[in-house]
Design brief:
With 469 residues, the chain is α/β, with parallel strands linked by helices. The protein folds into three domains: 159 residues, Aconitase, domain 3; 89 residues, Aconitase, Domain 2; 178 residues, Aconitase, domain 3 (2-Layer Sandwich). Helices cover 32% and strands 17% of the residues. The strands form five sheets. The chain has a five-stranded parallel sheet, with helices on both faces. Helix 3 links the parallel strand 4 and strand 5. The radius of gyration is 21 Å and the shape is globular. 53% of the residues are buried. Bound molecules: 3-isopropylmalic acid and iron/sulfur cluster. The site of 3-isopropylmalic acid has 8 residues, from loops.
Length: 469
């Protein structure tokens, strides 16, 4: 009998092409997603060396970071740098024979939303993209992670990647989530617990009753933010929820092929007794809705809490950095979170821009009005999410409440287009990063779940969604 293995061990072994004595490995890559920001030099590299894309059918390109989200975006992009990146991807995709979704294609959207939507992302695969949040795809029980531009070139040319194996971490989330508490709160709580460096050198497997109970959307939210916890990737073993989601997706296997695939996918789980180098446990039943207060995703607290006092941190460098964060955020220790007023709300991103997120928002805001002091926008994660939301009439609910309903893209998650905070503006955001300047120069970001962002838009300040009516 061979030793029990983790899911990560299994996918790794199944894709190993070569292993050197020092542990340097060559991995076969099943899927390569490409966006306009990290691919131009990679294609240029191929062009200069006269090489082709090795497996165009395993490569999918889309524009997302730089695209405007205004209704008139088909008129073109004003910012030159953004325009060039977008135009260049169209040129590169055509020249190298790679399927490409332009900003005028209904299938366009954030790269990590369209992969699963198209059935391009499937269990057991190795999936890469020149983007850190590629970890999202791990929700399907695939090994998915971000790569740098030179690696993008390597994968385009060879369909392989040079890697060293990471360690195994298990994050076990038991218990049942209380009403109003979501996948976003789980992952923010995990990062609060392990810190932004806690996952360094690991691939995390999320397991436990609370994870099993999540929809695919919720699982993607969790895996998405693995990178904020420092991990190389995050994954969740596939199950019936996964198979149901995949069935009928454009590129998913069908009929007999699907049955065979599912039989294989069912083997994709960690063996009983498999060794994890680190185990973290959390009880979902005890989790509150969570709000970030600082400039790192580990700076999190319960909505019922107060802004912490950095003076209570024994370690000097950390103390100083958390004071700086409070200064940047314009917050004072001891302020109740529910007394923090906000100026902007951003609902979207590859963390929370899927249909389930928009449904959660609609439920909170239906029949209500955005506070007069707040400017709130909703950016669907893809054209298909937008279409689905409109079919369900969610757009009408949003517009009636005073939300701005936009075209799909990364948008104010990172402010590479015109959607950005003004200096000093405070935003309740469903995205994943709250670094200084992330949503605009001197902008202040609070990371929350979609329902919490929606409620804050109506109230004008954070509220405990559990008490919402
Ligand atoms: C632009 C891209 C390289 C970047 C990333 O890798 O994550 C972006 O998507 C982000 O979220 O900061
Ligand atoms: S939505 Fe945000 S986090 Fe996701 S890929 Fe785009 S910029 Fe990166």
């Amino acid at each position: 009998m061979s030793a029990p293995r983790t899911l990560y061990d299994k996918i790794w072994a199944d894709h190993l092409v070569d292993e050197q004595a020092d542990g340097t490995c060559l991995l076969y890559i099943d899927r390569h997603l490409v966006h306009e920001v990290t691919s131009p030099q990679a294609f240029e590299g191929l062009r200069m060396t006269g090489r082709k894309v090795r497996a165009p059918e395993k490569t999918l390109a889309v524009v997302d970071h730089n695209v405007p989200t205004s209704p008139d975006r088909h008129l073109g992009i004003k910012n030159e740098e953004s325009r060039i990146q977008v135009e260049q991807l169209a040129i590169n995709a055509a020249e190298f024979n790679v399927e490409y979704y332009s900003e005028n294609d209904k299938r366009q959207g954030i790269v990590h939303i369209i992969g699963p939507e198209q059935g391009f992302t499937l269990p057991g695969m190795t999936i890469v993209c020149g983007d850190s949040h590629t970890s999202t795809h791990g929700a399907f029980g695939s090994l998915a992670h971000g790569i740098g531009t030179s690696e993008v070139e390597h994968v385009l040319a060879t369909q392989t990647l040079i890697q060293k194996k990471a360690k195994n971490m298990l994050v076990q989330v038991d218990g049942q989530l209380p009403a109003g508490v979501t996948a976003k709160d789980i992952v923010l709580a995990i990062i609060g617990e392990i810190g932004t460096a806690g996952g360094t050198g690991y691939v995390i497997e999320y397991a436990g009753e609370a994870i099993r109970a999540l929809s695919m959307e919720g699982r993607m939210t969790i895996c998405n933010m693995s990178i904020e916890g420092g991990a190389r990737a995050g994954l969740i073993a596939p199950d019936e929820t996964t198979f149901e989601y995949i069935k009928g997706k454009p590129r998913a296997p069908k009929g007999e092929a699907l049955e065979q695939a599912i039989a294989y996918w069912k083997t994709l789980k960690s063996d009983e007794g498999a060794h994890f180098d680190r185990v973290v446990k959390l009880n979902a039943a005890e989790l509150p809705p969570i709000v970030s207060w600082g400039s790192s995703p580990e700076d999190v607290i319960s909505v019922q809490g107060v802004v912490p006092n950095p003076d209570e941190i024994p370690e000097e460098t950390k103390r100083a950095s958390k004071w700086r964060a409070l200064d940047y955020m314009g917050l004072k220790p001891g302020t109740p979170i529910t007394e923090i007023n906000i100026d902007r709300v951003f609902i979207g991103s590859c963390t929370n821009g899927r249909i389930e997120d928009l449904r959660a928002v609609a439920k909170v805001v239906e029949g209500k009005t955005v506070a007069s002091t707040v400017n709130a926008m909703i950016v669907p994660g893809s054209g298909l999410v937008k279409e689905q939301a409109e079919q369900e009439g969610l757009d009408k609910i949003f517009k009636a409440a005073g939300f701005d309903w936009r075209e799909p893209g990364c948008s104010m998650c990172l402010a590479m287009n015109d959607d950005r905070l003004k200096p000093g503006e405070r935003c309740a955001s469903t995205s994943n990063r709250n670094f200084e300047g992330r949503q605009g120069f001197k902008g202040r970001t609070h990371l929350v779940s979609p329902a919490m962002a929606a409620a804050a838009a109506i109230a004008g300040h954070f509220v405990d969604i559990r008490e919402w009516n």
